Amino acid sequence: METLNRMVGLLPYNLSLEVVMAVEAGLGELPAYSSSTPGCEDPMSFLQSVCHTVIVQGVSAMMAFPQTRDELLKLEFIASALQIPVISVVQNEFKRQSKMPMHNPALPQVELLYSLLVINSWYDVSLLLCQEWNVSSFLVRLRNNTKFHLGSVVNITTSSTSSGSHPNSSIFKADFYTSLQGYLESIKKSTSTVVTFGCDIRDIKRIFSVVAKLGLMLPEYHWVLGDTQDLEELRTEGLPAGLLAHGRMGAPSLDHYVQDGLELVARVVGSAAYRSPELALIPSITNCMDTQSNQNRNMTSGKYLARGQDNFTASKGRWTGPCTVKIVGFLSNTSFDGLSGFISSQQETVISSESHHFIWSLQHDPIGNPMWTRLGRWKQSRVLLDYAAWANKKSNKQSSYQGADWRYPSRLHLRVVTLVEHPFVFTREVDEDGLCPAGQLCLDPLTNNTPLLQSLFLQGPNDSIPMKYKKCCYGYCIDLLEKLAEDIGFDFDLYIVGDGKYGGFKNRRWTGLVGDLLSGAAHLAVTSFSINSARSRVIDFTSPFFSTSLGILVRSRDTAAPIGAFMWPLHWSMWLGIFVSLHVTAVFLTVYEWNSPFGMTPRGRNRDKVFSFSSALNVCYAILFGRTAAIKPPKCWTGRFLMNLWAIFCLFCLSTYTANLAAVMVGEKTFEQLSGIHDPKLHHPSQGFRFATVRESSAEDYLKKSIPEMHGYMTRYNVPATPDGIEHLKHDPQQLDAFIMDKALLDYEVSIDADCKTLTVGKPFAIEGK
């Protein structure tokens, strides 16, 4: 129950599932009780007993364990009267036949074998019978398809049993091997696929001992065990690699069916709550009399689940197989993979538990030992193949969550290659224990040799791998890889591409990331890997996760300021306006002072000094430049008021000048003026203008196809990686004048440039995806 309540997304609105136990006469056998009391044979008495023990607890659904068909009919009566879903778990089918018989669905032997043959295009088939076996339905299925060629149908016990020898005698064994060898010789000449029926493990071992002598081993010949097998009974000794088998991994127990019944209720409650929470979440009834008297008026969560959305009459159903379930409304639309099998609705009122039926192949593990590996499963009348050929060890976190639950398929294990490209992929050193506190452990083996990579990863990350190979990879692409592995469900080993290249076609072979993918050294590449037509022809890309374009990076240079640079902060018209207004103010100050009776003029009152036009200019310039000087301030009130207005004006002008001076004069730089990829400096380079890009990158591929003349000139300057291009650009003296690469990478380099020596110029071009 706690497991169901912890499942994410199963129950909304913080709901939880709770089980209340009620044992009373007529309830049937619960798993923890031996028998029921025979005191409630009457249906009404049975109903009253249920009301007094179960309904009073306010349940939304009930689970019962009837042992006879009479008890099942009483439960049907309960479901109809109370309109509450009743899940009846029946361990064995009833002896009495009913309208809807409850039994295990027929084993999918014929259809499964037929599907396996069709999937692998094995149309030449022979049958090998170890005993008298009815294979008529399988033969009919093959003959109905004209693609199949049916070879021999051989019963290897015919001749040996007719001799009358004891099975353990040497005569019997000699006759058996002689006849078997003759039959296999006839099969060898006619077909390439052999399906066995009625053979146990001893028969199979004897068959393959003769097969090995005749040279009928896989992959030339395909062997399929036609009978349903139990994985616990299968052996690996004396059997060839590639042998196919199918069957179940043990029969589900009663606990599995009980758990699936509870999960069925939880899923139904969740679906109903999502659809109509106002009905699904209202309190359940606790009095049967209220239900019978107000049946048309009252609505409870149990009634809502029982009636469903449109049908307002209680419907009932059964779970076929070893269990029976009363289902209604939302229940008939619920399906999921349970512990006992795939739970789904087969008919309007029937829920079926289809047992887990798997397909195995005898393979060799990485060490070389034979092991049975799960290839797929039979589900809903079709074969579903797993993505992995090997069942890898799960992580501790996953193991703790799933435990030994064999419902979950083996996970795909991939070898992933990456390329260190900031800001998408970074690396740092591992700690002293060889672990990564943050990021993913990755290997930097400096090679793309597939056998060497396989041997390194087989050793394990912390066993005998030299410390110099270990790195910690992190960044945007690594986070994306981790999320992808979590969503799809696969594990991975990560390593850095050996030659440090994206991949180009050189010397009749692909290099870099593309070469590793084509050689099989890596199954997946995750980095800032641009998509272009050449690469798309040989490898497959996912949908782009980042759109970018190509850009041009140049270096800025410090220059000496000219003598008139102090005037750059303000426009020439501003300077002109300031000096014109200064002289106009000086004129008005002089006029006001000379026309005032209190002014410093020869006609003024006892004035020893005279305020002339030169005095007015001296006052205005001193205020403008903020410098103290021996001035003659005006004495009239009008002149003093005008002088204060001029001071306020000068304050605004000086503040603006100072702010602009800091922005203009500090760090004044020049840079190469490039309008874009079609700039004449790039198409017609002169005076030693040098530009480059990364070798075997998408930028080089674009320039090679679009502008071959430019590509031919820049080949001598191309660099192996982006950091090398940045270094050549910032080096003193400069080794490059411009660097062409993905604009996203260039923008990142500009953002982390502490010396502010680089900047991107021109318009972006060649929009592409990663």
Structure described in brief:
Helices cover 36% and strands 18% of the residues. With 770 residues, the chain is an alpha/beta fold.
CATH topology name of the domain at 2-103 and 252-342, in short, is Rossmann fold
Give the CA-CA distance, first to last residue. Answer: 46 Å
| Average pLDDT level | 73
What is the CATH first-level class name of the domain at 2-103 and 252-342?
Answer: Alpha Beta
Query: Gyration radius, to the nearest Å?
Result: 44 Å
Structural class computed from helices and strand pairing: alpha/beta
Strand order of the largest sheet: 4-3-5-6-7-12-13-14
Low-pLDDT runs of 5+ residues are: 24-40, 94-106, 158-172, 308-328, 387-410
Count of strand segments:
27
Overall helicity: 25-40%
Main sheet specs: 8 strands, mixed
What is the count of helical runs?
25
What is the general shape? elongated
- Report strand %: 15-25%
Which architecture name of the domain at 2-103 and 252-342 does CATH use? 3-Layer(aba) Sandwich
Subcellular location: Cell membrane; Postsynaptic cell membrane
InterPro entries: ANF_lig-bd_rcpt, Glu/Gly-bd, Iono_Glu_rcpt_met, Ionotropic_Glu_rcpt, Iontro_rcpt_C, Peripla_BP_I
Pfam families: ANF_receptor, Lig_chan, Lig_chan-Glu_bd
Protein name: Glutamate receptor
Notes on the protein architecture:
36% of the residues lie in helices and 18% in strands. Helix 7 crosses helix 8 (201-214), helix 18 (572-595) packs antiparallel against helix 20 (637-665) and helix 22 crosses helix 23 (708-714). Among the domains are: 2-103 and 252-342, Rossmann fold (3-Layer(aba) Sandwich), CATH 3.40.50; 412-545, Periplasmic binding protein-like II (D-Maltodextrin-Binding Protein, domain 2, 3-Layer(aba) Sandwich); 565-665; 669-769, Periplasmic binding protein-like II (D-Maltodextrin-Binding Protein, domain 2, 3-Layer(aba) Sandwich). It is an alpha/beta fold. Mean pLDDT is 73; it is low at 24-40, 94-106, 158-172, 308-328 and 387-410. It contains 25 helices and 27 strands. It starts with a helix and ends with a strand. The record marks 674 as: Crucial to convey clamshell closure to channel opening. L-glutamate binds at residues 530, 535, 698, 742. Belongs to the glutamate-gated ion channel (TC 1.A.10.1) family.
